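haha ok so turns out i had the wrong file open the whole time. this is the CORRECT one, sorry everyone. sequence first:
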Amino acid sequence: MAQDNPASSLYHVGFWVQDIDQALHFYTQIMDFSVLSHAKRATGGERVMLGDTMGNYMEILSDSSVLDAPDAPLHPVGRVEGLPHIAIRVEDTQAMKQRLQDEGYEILREAPDPSVGGYITSENGEHRMIFVRGPGNISLELFEFVKENDLFENAP
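then structure:
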């Protein structure tokens, strides 16, 4: 099927991890993604495709040659070239924050500040968010919308 715009949608986000079991626990047991496929890679390690309830995919790859991430501050504090974060929609950031802390994950930042409460208003809509250091040293931005704007509605 031909398309006018050959790059019309994002298919998946993929990343390497050293501990695939930790990553699978995080994304399936905490974040509620589904395992769509799980296979051994021909060159060693494993490849897992995960899916969310909206039809989006995430690929997790493991291999014995995966190196530690550079010792640099993660987004939103650090500004290091590369993939700064992955944003995931959640129903309740405060409940998710507690669940993540109970599992031993580091909360990097919350917005707005929890002592202030409320929501942030931006071009995305009204929302609040938390940033967490996930498996594989990936910074995850967890979004809770109270009102979401359609960004495609006014796109150029």
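The chain has a mean pLDDT of 85.
again sry for the mixup
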